[in-house]
Amino acid sequence: MTSVSRFARITGTGSYLPPRRITNHDLVADLAQRGVQTSDEWIVERTGIHARHFADEGVTSSDLGLQASLQAIAAAGIAAQDIDLIIVATSTPDMVFPSTAAILQNKLGITNGCPVFDVQAVCSGFVYALSVADAMIRAGSARRALVVGAEIFSRILDFNDRTTCVLFGDGAGAVVLGASDEPGIIGGKLQADGAHLGLLKVPAHMAGGEICGNPYVEMDGPGVFKFAVKTLAKVAEEVIAEAGIGVDEIDWIVPHQANKRIIESTAKHLGLSMDKVVLTVDEHANTSAASIPLALDTGIRRGQIKRGQTLLLEGIGGGFAWGAVLLKY
Ligand code: UT7
């Protein structure tokens, strides 16, 4: 056990998108060759997505996570060897086991024996991972945690299913969370309801050397949409109320980037203008557990998010699992 600190604070962020950028027009043309009809107009109007990035064959989630982590570690001004906890949120791990976090630890050259593990909470994975790291830092179990969201969703998309394949992309985001006596993460809430399996899943498992069941994303889009709109604003309001601050004190919402309409609806419900929302879904599409740290790093590097500002991070995904984290950057 190390000494106990009152807060965990973000000291550095990073992100990485694989270089292969696929516009809606590229995807529409590719899908047409398979006999799958969609259009740039439909995708933009229903989701706000204009492009996504896809990783090349052979590239893994830990490869994307490595690039994001190196940036976050550099931004924090520490050496990789100073990291004493790694948590990776992913639904597209490199392997069944070991964890992607263990593979990342090795790629970072960290030999100090720090604990590493993955968190599987689909699109809310980063909010879950950040909350776990926060709790471990405040308990004195770690002082410099690397928290990563990394996904290669293109590998689990059925490109014959236009209701899902136009929505997702690949990428990674990372933060270094350090023990601090200054805030820091000031509130948060994680929730889940396993009764909604039917809304969103990749049902396959492996047995006897075979993949059993559908290894691609299955989603009831409108069902997810309704659930997300109802749930995200509620959890955000609860977190804000419990922290005892006013909504007007929030400088930025950094939401899970699945659909611009869901993001707009949550902001409207909270009474916040879209000027206070970091929006990256247009360029990244839905990168699941990577989407919040990718948006956070993008907002910081664009100069939108500044030190001392109050941020609300919120996400929802398969499970269903959802949550929100309130923090001073
Ligand atoms: O990260 C969390 C997981 N995911 C989400 O948060 C996604 C949540 N859901 C959504 O974002 C939206 O529900 C979608 C973008 C998936 C769909 O938008 P929607 O406005 O709910 O459309 P819809 O599913 O009700 O479909 C409307 C129409 C249908 O045609 P008909 O029955 O009206 O003739 C669909 O067949 O759009 C059709 N459609 C498409 N048309 C062109 C569905 N996908 C496509 C497509 N291109 N790619």
Show the helix and strand layout.
Layout (H helix, E strand, L loop, with lengths): L6 E10 L4 E3 H10 L6 H8 L3 E3 L7 H16 L8 E5 L10 H8 L8 E4 L5 H14 L5 E9 L9 H4 L4 E11 L4 E8 L7 E2 L3 E3 L2 E3 L5 E2 L1 H23 L8 E4 L4 H11 L10 H4 L6 H11 L8 E8 L3 E8 L1
Parallel strand pairs: 4-5, 4-6, 13-14
Antiparallel strand pairs: 1-7, 2-3, 6-7, 8-15, 9-12, 10-11, 14-15
Plain-language structure description:
This protein is α+β, with helices and mostly antiparallel strands. The protein is built from 10 helices and 15 strands. It has a 5-stranded mixed sheet, with helices on both faces. Strand 4 (85-89), helix 4 and strand 5 (116-119) form a beta-alpha-beta unit. The chain is globular, with a radius of gyration of 19 Å. The two termini are 26 Å apart. The mean pLDDT is 97.
**Which strands sit side by side, in order, in the main sheet?**
1-7-6-4-5
Percent in helix: 25-40%
Rg, rounded, reads 19 Å
- Taken from the alpha-carbon principal axes, the silhouette is globular
* SSE sequence, one letter per element: EEHHEHEHEHEHEEEEEEHEHHHEE
List bound small molecules: oxa(dethia)-CoA
Structural classification: alpha+beta
Q: What is the tally of helical segments?
A: 10
Total beta strand runs: 15
Strand content: 25-35%
The average pLDDT value, as a whole number, equals 97
Largest sheet: 5 strands, mixed
Q: What is the CA-CA span between the terminal residues?
A: 26 Å
Segments where pLDDT lies below 50 for 5+ residues?
A: none
